[in-house]
Amino acid sequence: MKSLIATMAVVFLITFLAAPTMGAGWFWDVGNGIGFAAFAGLLYLTIASNRRLDVRAHQILGYAVLLLVVGHAFWFLLGDATVVEFIKIGAPDYMWLGIVSLILFVVLITTANVPDRLRVHQNYSSFRYWHRVLTIVIIAGAAYHIVVSNFYLGTWYQAALFVLISIAVCLGRAYWIKLGQIAIASPVVYVALSVIMAVAFTGLRNLPA
Amino acid sequence: MKIVLAAILTAAGLIIIFGSPIAKEKPVLGYYYESPVPILPMSFAHADHPTENCIDCHHNYNDNTGGGPCMNCHTTNQDVWPLFERQFHDLCRSCHAEKAVLGEEGGPPRHCIKCHLGDDLP
């Protein structure tokens, strides 16, 4: 629980380091608040993975994170008819990377479940290796999508911090293992915390002047 | 779970092909502003921007980068068209964001559709 709150707090706090009251309207800010919560969930799933991992809890929380990732995408696609043009041929690379990350996340989840896992991977160590590699690729793609779209990380130090925490989470496994067993938060807690963070993110940026 | 994931991806594909079933207003790709390729309509209310310097947008009047309709270069020139989306969005957004930070009226545009309806504003 503490690790989840800390991860969420770090991700959202970085967005507030510069121009904390600048928003783009509740529609845009809610959708992106959901997106930041989804990204924090991805980081948390990675941090909380160690040798004594509760696989079932990890799996269920993965579904909850996917729910938010999909929620982020559909929020914009359904709410604003123009956004579709933003993900067609000719769309900026950061949008493509967001879509690629979403699809890879679906692949990651699908190929992690037995019996599909057994069809793809010959042994457990192969699965663990490729699960980790795919996770790093997904986080890298999602981080690129967030940083280069430049909506809330307008200063160089915000972008640098965001990249740094992404790299630290992806490559700092040796350190995360030393933290010992982290009890994976329940999906209800994660979604509730995400709602709180997204509401706060939107509210602070859209307060009347 | 696989069925749910397949349904989600199918729904996303249908929205991309046919558009949002619940969004009220939809932009129509077309050959606006004499663009040789289909683009989204755009709005810029000149009457609402009386203090802006014209050449901030119409830069070709003083930097000798060519004449004619903007879209001649911005959608076809191989040095410029890859920057099309970034240049036009940043041009509008940077000013609106600056105003929002200063607490002045006229914050960032809200929904994308607010600028991409292609109205007949002067």
Write the layout of secondary structure elements.
The complex is a heterodimer of chains A (209) and B (122).
Chain A: H1 2-15, H2 26-47, H3 55-79, H4 93-110, H5 116-120, H6 124-149, H7 156-171, H8 173-178, H9 187-205
Helix pairs in contact in A: 1-2, 1-9, 2-3, 2-6, 2-9, 3-4, 3-9, 4-6, 6-7
Chain B: H1 2-18, H2 60-63, H3 70-74, H4 84-101
Short structural summary:
The complex is a heterodimer of chains A (209) and B (122). Chain A has 209 residues and is an all-alpha fold.
Please tell me about this protein's structure.
With 209 residues, chain A is an all-alpha fold. Chain A has nine helices and no strands. Chain A has helices at residues 2-15, 26-47, 55-79, 93-110, 116-120, 124-149, 156-171, 173-178, 187-205. In chain A, helix 1 (2-15) runs parallel beside helix 9 (187-205). The longest helix of chain A has 26 residues, at 124-149. Chain A starts with a helix and ends with a helix. With 122 residues, chain B is an all-alpha fold. Helices cover 36% and strands 0% of the residues of chain B. Chain B contains four helices and no strands. Chain B has helices at 2-18, 60-63, 70-74, 84-101. Classes of the chains: A mainly alpha (209), B mainly alpha (122). The A-B interface holds A 19, 21-25, 27-28, 63, 70, 73-74, 77-88, 91-92, 103, 106, 109-110, 113, 116, 154, 209 and B 1-2, 5, 8-9, 11-12, 15-16, 19-23, 25-27, 29, 40, 85-86, 97, 100-101, 103, 107-113, 116.
